[in-house]
Design brief:
Blueprint lengths: L1 E3 L5 E3 L5 E3 L2 H9 L22 H10 L1 E4 L6 E4 L3 E5 L2 E6 L5 E7 L7 E7 L5 H4 L6 E3 H9 L12 E4 L2 E2 L10 H14 L6 E2 L1 E5 L3 H13 L4 E4 L6 E4 L1
Parallel strand pairs: 5-13, 8-14, 10-11
Antiparallel strand pairs: 1-2, 2-3, 4-16, 5-15, 6-7, 7-14, 8-9, 11-12
The structure holds zinc ion.
Length: 240
Amino acid sequence: MVVDTTLCTVLSNEYGVSISTPEHVLAALAGAGIDNATIEVDAPELPIMDGSSDDFTFLIGCVGVRPQPSRSRPRIEVLKPVQVQDGESWARLLPSDRFRVSCTIDYDHPHVGVQHFDFDSACQTFSETVGRARTFGFLHELEWMRARGYAKGATLDNAVAISPDGVVNDGGLRYPDEFVRHKVLDAVGDLALAGAPILGAFQGFRSGHRLNNMVLRALFADQSAWRLEGAETEAQRVVA
Ligand SMILES: [Zn+2]
């Protein structure tokens, strides 16, 4: 269950055990088509790695995946548009014949500005187009975050830092539009918490973990907006 979305997603169970920042490993699993895996963690948060899904994708590739032909693999089919709004920001889920995630960001910063990226699972590979995009932050926000106990481990090894003059990291960006691609990565991870793959299109405008979670809740709150589809048609894939 999602209990907090202030800066990252925080999950908690009925015993009060919580784990934060699961979205990047969930995105790596979802991007690899895996929806059945056991993850053991002995800390209150997932390791941030390099701030993207790349290390998790690499490790999944090392271990390999295994089909589960004997088990059904239902998908959550979006039947009609659902939208949530917070000021100028919004997120929506729409019917689609395939899984798509489109994000638009609009930052009042000359080195970020307006960026748009459309991930289409039918013709793009998650690990190549989105999975390497790192989390990012503005240097002037770091003080605010650290004062509240967040981002204590934030370094240039696990995040892209943006100053008024531009990207601080040596080597610059991995994609010219890395910022919006990371928003797509986060959305793929957050949507993986639906419990089954989504057959539909997500669109977000200045959205984040909170709106991503809200739009899922709005979908499930409307029984006429979704159904479980293809329960007996596809094999599940698990980490071997
Ligand atoms: Zn992220």
